[in-house]
Amino acid sequence: MLRVYNYEGRTNYGWDQARDVGVIEQSLKSNRLPLLGPIVRGDIGGFYLGPLYHYMVQPIYALTSHNPLSLVWFSILADVAVALGLAVWISPLAGVIWATSSLLINSALTPWNVSLVHPWMFAILFLSTRLLRRPSPLLNHIFLLILATSTSIHLTLLPVAGVLLLYVAVPIWRATRHLYHWLLYILALFLPQLPLILSDLKTSGSNLRAFKDYLFIKSGEVPVSLLYQNSTCSSDYCYPYPFPPSVS
Fold first, then answer.
1. 225 shares its domain with 192
2. Are 47 and 224 in contact (CB under 8 A)?
3. pLDDT digits over 203-246, tens only?
4. Is residue 44, in this structure, part of any structural domain at all?
5. Within a domain: residue 166?
6. How confident is the model at residue 42 (pLDDT cuts 50, 70, 90)?
7. 58 and 75 part of one domain
8. Is residue 61 part of a domain?
């Protein structure tokens, strides 16, 4: 109730949200999935994250007759899911503290890809503790798949994912006895990157180059312009849609 009360008047809705609505709207109209997600901007140019957030928001956006506020509902539902998870698997007090924190309530009312950070952190920490206690190939697959989605959520999760992967490497190694499990682990890490890989294949690796330039703060303009091939523009902004022929 604390998140839902007068949410329309308390919601932070700006350029990021308008961008996401434009991406989702165009995707539904064209019956094609975008290969690029939100942009990470730096002092010089920027690069694109994966499109997981846009994929996850599309169902609720379609079910609510393309209501832009559905992004807020998705954010609230994601935050409530974390509170319930804490209450069930940690302690009821932890769930109550999460549910009543004014900082977290305000955070849930900002609908964007960062809304997935809290659910991601809870899921990955919960799975890692289970994995350390009693590892199994199935648990390893789920853990690695969720870990790999960090490239679609936020840049700061990339080092976190790397550290966690090193942390559970030994239990995963001990629980794995067959080659096909290792192949499935690689597949779990690869699948969330598939849209970005397809995008780079279509644009000659422009997003990967932009990411490298972002990291090393290369002087001059980052070559992000190639990403705008096959773009779809509205009156307010232009957003890239590099679709492979098979995605429709």
1. no
2. yes
3. 888 888 888 887 776 544 444 444 444 333 333 333 443 333 33
4. yes
5. yes
6. low
7. no
8. yes
Cα distance between residue 83 and residue 65, in whole Å: 28
Tokens of 231: 């773009």
Instruction: Count up the domains in the chain and report the number.
Output: 3
How far is 3 from 18, CA to CA, in rounded Å? 21
Q: Which two tokens stand for residue 237?
A: 């902004």
Are 184 and 222 within one domain? no
What pairing do the DSSP bridges indicate for beta strands 231-233 and 238-240? antiparallel
Q: Is residue 179 part of a domain?
A: yes
SS3 127: helix
Domain span including residue 50: 13-68+203-242
Position 186 confidence tier, pLDDT thresholds 50, 70, 90 = very high
Give the pLDDT confidence of 97-135 residue by residue, as tens digits: 888 887 787 777 778 888 899 899 999 989 998 888 888
Residues facing residue 85 across a β-bridge = none
Buried b (16+ CB within 10 A) or exposed e, 122-145: bbbebbbeebeeebebebbbbbbb
Average pLDDT, the chain: 80
Q: What's the pLDDT at 195?
A: 93
Written as six digits, the tokens of 228 are 């705008």
State whether 179 and 194 are in the same domain. Answer: yes
This prediction has a pTM of: 0.78
The residue type of 184 is: L
Contact (CB, 8 A) for 173 and 132? no
**Cβ pair 127, 143 in contact under 8 A:** yes
Instruction: Kindly state whether residues 132 and 189 are assigned to the same domain.
Output: yes
Q: How far apart are CA 202 and CA 199, in angstroms?
A: 5
